[in-house]
């Protein structure tokens, strides 16, 4: 038991501090559990001990720990979540969500109430049937455009977008990976999995409650962090960092290629575009030889600019404001966009230098925003994180490639000619069939979901190579790593011990006249606090065994306690790290860490009351 608790504590620290990516931490948990195994111990005067004890694995003892350590990969929850990612991607590639978003956006105008209502009203129901992280990623450009067109700060809409996707995910079993994982644990521990619409009635109630909160109290608590600007250069406060310079006749740069000049320069400077003989060039222009009279739009600080002019033989072109209009003269289509680092991106933990961003994507990064931090110089070595927002200058073709790249989310609406709109009825029909088969027949959800994923390929909604891009592998590995940890916690008696400690605290509540509903609410709050610090899936794995043991010790309905943990783990409102969708809007919204606490804590408290009362009403607290 002590070994398992040590693994749990180490995992919690790593999850909370993000010293390692969550999927790497999960793999480390798997390795640790495969190095240890439960063995039955005899005491001379006590006979066979009832509970196994974990010891380090020793070769040749005849008991393999591999099955337990790798059980997460064989879990129905892991396979179902993997299949749901494929189903979500199949729907996404038809463009149906974007079409719906565009139609709704056309009705919002400059009314904040309509914009907020449209955001919440669209993402919540969609999140009940496709992965909610994918729903936020798809709708983020639409919401940002709605805000800009309506003269509203994007910050006012993006946090509600994240929150609504979370409580919308509680409408069905397939709304979140957490629900699917909780269903498996519930099935294994008390023999009662979730049906497709097991908690839909409560999901509708919390969705209504959450929507009312966001349209009233939350509306005034959500801050306007991003300035209300249509011009991206103004939004990123680039006025002092963008300048046009001309190459003098005596410049030492003449004859060098642009790439060589940038590589050997000791200054923090980027060449954004080149103007030569009334033609404007964007990346890639690295192989162009520099000539006298060339005009460069450059990104650098004012202090650096003074030294740069003298050393490199450049002159500032006076009375030229380098804004969006100036930077978009090269093409008729948009070439200045915000790009968000997506969940599961290969750039997470890397820098602009280590990824060779400029050459790799034929794009220039003018600024980088992480939450409230805004970098406009010396950003080449800043480690990128989920939700970081890059202000990128590139050709339309390069922007199209970024838009199709799963590493990024382009935060403005960009035309996607590759949407398979003819497949919209087919994709919707496949998802409906998956839901219907799982809900109305004895066929298990994992079979239904895998069949749906196969149908997406056979019908052409997805191409075979796209299957692997559709899956968020960090989530899959996270599930595979934490599931064995929950098994170990249960088998070693760790869940019993934690439940006893919880019951001791709950005893004072019962003694003081509080009922089981108050204890259930406390279980919700404990899980919610844990989920806001670590992964929601890890919270479910750790807390469901404890919740079941607690219910059994209190002679209460164990299924009710499972539901309380499930709802709490899927609604992490108080920190940006509590849920991937919170991280996804962190950079584009320019939020501070405390914004999540200020807006999310009251909502979490409201949900604690609504969820507890709803569970007590629909399922009862007395043992079944």
UniProtKB/TrEMBL annotation:
Q: Which residues are in the RCK C-terminal domain?
A: 229-314, 322-408
InterPro entries under this entry? Cit_transptr-like_dom (IPR004680), DASS-Related_Transporters (IPR051679), Na/sul_symport_CS (IPR031312), RCK_C (IPR006037), RCK_C_sf (IPR036721)
- List the PROSITE patterns hit by this protein, alphabetically: NA_SULFATE, RCK_C
This protein's record includes keyword Transmembrane: yes
Broad class of the protein's primary localization: membrane
Q: Does the keyword Metal-binding apply?
A: no
Transmembrane ranges? 29-50, 70-87, 116-140, 161-182, 202-222, 426-458, 470-489, 501-527, 533-551, 558-579, 599-622
Spell out the Pfam families in the cross-references. CitMHS, TrkA_C
Query: Superkingdom, according to UniProt?
Result: Archaea
**Cellular location(s):** Membrane
Annotated keywords: Membrane, Repeat, Transmembrane, Transmembrane helix, Transport
Which SUPFAM superfamilies does this chain map to? TrkA C-terminal domain-like
Q: How does it sit in the membrane?
A: Multi-pass membrane protein
Q: Which PANTHER family match?
A: BASIC AMINO ACID ANTIPORTER YFCC-RELATED
This protein is called SLC13 family permease
Q: What is the lineage of its organism?
A: Archaea, Methanobacteriati, Methanobacteriota, Stenosarchaea group, Halobacteria
């Amino acid at each position: 038991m002590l070994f398992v608790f040590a693994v749990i504590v180490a995992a919690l620290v790593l999850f909370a501090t993000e010293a390692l990516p969550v999927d790497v931490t999960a793999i480390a948990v798997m390795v640790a559990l495969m190095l240890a195994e439960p063995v039955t111990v005899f005491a001379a005067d006590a006979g066979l001990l009832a509970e196994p004890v974990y010891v380090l694995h020793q070769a040749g003892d005849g008991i393999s720990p591999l099955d337990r350590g790798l059980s997460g990969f064989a879990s129905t929850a892991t396979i179902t979540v993997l299949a749901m990612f494929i189903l979500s991607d199949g729907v996404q590639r038809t463009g149906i969500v974007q079409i719906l978003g565009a139609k709704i956006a056309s009705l919002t105008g400059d009314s904040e109430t309509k914009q907020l209502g449209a955001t919440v009203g669209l993402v919540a129901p969609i999140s009940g049937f496709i992965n909610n992280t994918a729903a936020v990623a798809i709708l983020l450009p639409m919401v940002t455009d709605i805000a800009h067109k309506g003269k509203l700060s994007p910050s006012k809409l993006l946090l509600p977008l994240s929150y609504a996707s979370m409580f919308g995910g509680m409408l069905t079993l397939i709304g979140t990976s957490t629900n699917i994982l909780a269903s498996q644990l519930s099935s294994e521990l008390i023999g009662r999995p979730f049906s497709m619409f097991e908690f839909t009635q409560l999901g509708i109630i919390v969705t209504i409650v959450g929507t009312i909160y966001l349209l009233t109290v939350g509306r005034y608590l959500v801050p306007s962090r991003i300035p209300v600007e249509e011009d991206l250069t103004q939004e990123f406060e680039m006025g002092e960092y963008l300048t046009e310079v001309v190459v003098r006749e005596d410049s030492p740069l003449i004859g060098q290629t642009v790439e060589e000049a940038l590589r050997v320069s000791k200054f923090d400077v980027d060449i954004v575009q080149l103007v030569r003989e009334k033609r404007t060039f964007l990346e890639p222009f690295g192989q162009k030889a520099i000539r006298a009279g060339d005009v460069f739009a450059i990104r650098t600080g004012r202090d650096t600019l003074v030294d740069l002019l003298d050393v490199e033989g450049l002159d500032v072109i006076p009375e030229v404001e380098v804004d969006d209009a100036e930077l978009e003269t090269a093409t008729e289509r948009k070439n200045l966009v915000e790009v968000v680092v997506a969940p599961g991106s290969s750039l997470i933990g890397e820098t602009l230098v280590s990824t060779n961003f400029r050459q790799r994507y034929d794009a220039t990064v003018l600024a980088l925003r992480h939450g409230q931090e805004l970098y406009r110089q010396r950003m080449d070595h800043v480690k990128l994180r989920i939700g970081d927002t890059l202000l990128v200058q590139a050709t339309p073709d390069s922007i199209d490639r970024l838009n199709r790249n799963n590493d990024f989310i382009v935060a403005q609406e960009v035309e996607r000619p590759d949407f398979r709109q003819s497949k919209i009825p087919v994709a919707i029909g496949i998802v409906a069939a998956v839901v219907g088969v799982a809900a109305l027949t004895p066929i298990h959800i994992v079979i239904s979901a895998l069949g749906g994923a196969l149908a997406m390929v056979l019908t052409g909604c997805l191409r075979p190579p796209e299957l692997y891009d559709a899956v968020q592998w960090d989530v899959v590995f996270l599930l595979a790593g934490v599931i064995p940890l929950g098994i170990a916690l249960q088998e070693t008696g760790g869940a019993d011990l934690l439940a006893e400690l919880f019951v001791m605290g709950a005893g004072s509540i019962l003694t003081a006249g509080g009922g089981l509903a108050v204890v259930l609410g406390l279980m919700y709050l404990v899980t919610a606090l844990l989920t806001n610090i670590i992964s929601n899936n890890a919270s479910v794995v750790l807390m469901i065994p404890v919740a079941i043991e607690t219910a059994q010790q209190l002679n209460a309905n164990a299924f009710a306690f499972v539901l309380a943990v499930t709802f709490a783990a899927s609604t992490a409102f108080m920190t940006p790290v509590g849920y991937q969708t919170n991280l996804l809007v962190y950079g584009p919204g320019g939020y501070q860490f405390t914004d999540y606490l200020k807006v999310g804590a009251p909502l979490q408290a409201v949900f604690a009351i609504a969820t507890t009362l709803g569970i007590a009403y629909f399922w009862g607290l007395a043992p079944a």
